Amino acid sequence: MTIRILHVVTNVAHYDDPSHATGLWLSELTHAWEVFAEHGFEQTLVSPAGGAVPLEPRSLKFPNEDKSAKAWQADPDKMALLENTLRPDQVNAADHDAIYFTGGHAVMYDFLGSEGLQRITTEIFERGGIVSSVCHGYCGLLDTKLSDGSYLIAGRQMTGFSWTEEVLARVDQLVPYNAEEVAKQRGARYRKAKLPFVPHVVADGNLVTGQNPGSARKTATRVAALLSRA
d(Cα 11, Cα 117) in Å, to the nearest integer? Predict the structure, then answer.
């Protein structure tokens, strides 16, 4: 049977201050997409509002030689996928074996309160599917609750973009909240690498999370391994 992955991307184009642009950190999508494609998985894009996905300008410049992101930008069919993403109400959670939340600071605004995404995530998780995220993608998990009312991440080991990395990226004064701290408040057993910006993946059962943009490929590889064994 075909394994199906649901990628979650953002619709937000700027911080609270409109003069500061943000959006999807493209390589966090493309690196995972390549891994899943190599395994023959079927892939779909969903966003909180559906439709177009803006790109984080900084993700197109750093790292300078990201062939994966450049190849996506050069492919009209791939770019068209980012213009026509599904809404959560157009997605049947039962059709997907895993959900993968991409990042970029934009997701801090529209992932957190999306009840549609929370519904899909809970359904996939509770039937044993894989819930995964990379970098700021874990903002989509912060308010997600299970059927018993507990937070999905409560008591589970996980990671995501750290506050130290926010400070070093010089956006700590722009972001709307401290995602690392909120995760801990929700009961998550938050883990991070000893050094900032190095690839780091944490797996706890069917929850797989990566810390930063450089963790996308390793996160997807871990997800693929779990799905291939299922």
Answer: 13
Q: What is the CATH number of the domain that holds 13?
A: 3.40.50.880
Edge-to-edge strands of the sheet including 42-46?
42-46, 4-8, 98-101, 130-134, 207-210, 201-204
Number of domains, the chain: 1
Which of 55, 42, 46, 45 is closest to 12 using CA atoms?
Answer: 55
Amino acid letter, residue 150: S
Residue 83 has pLDDT above 80, yes or no: yes
What pTM does this model have?
Answer: 0.97
Q: How far is CA 202 from CA 12, 94, 171, 208, in A?
A: 27, 25, 24, 6
pLDDT of residue 65: 57
pLDDT of 184 over the 80 cut: yes
Q: 């410049």: which residue's tokens?
A: 61
- Secondary structure class of 137 (helix, strand, coil): helix
Q: Determine the distance from the C-alpha atom of residue 114 to the mean position of all C-alpha atoms in its chain, rounded to a whole number.
A: 14
Q: Which domain holds residue 148?
A: 4-229
Distances (CA, A) of 62 to 21, 58, 103: 15, 6, 15
What mean pLDDT is predicted for residues 25-39?
97
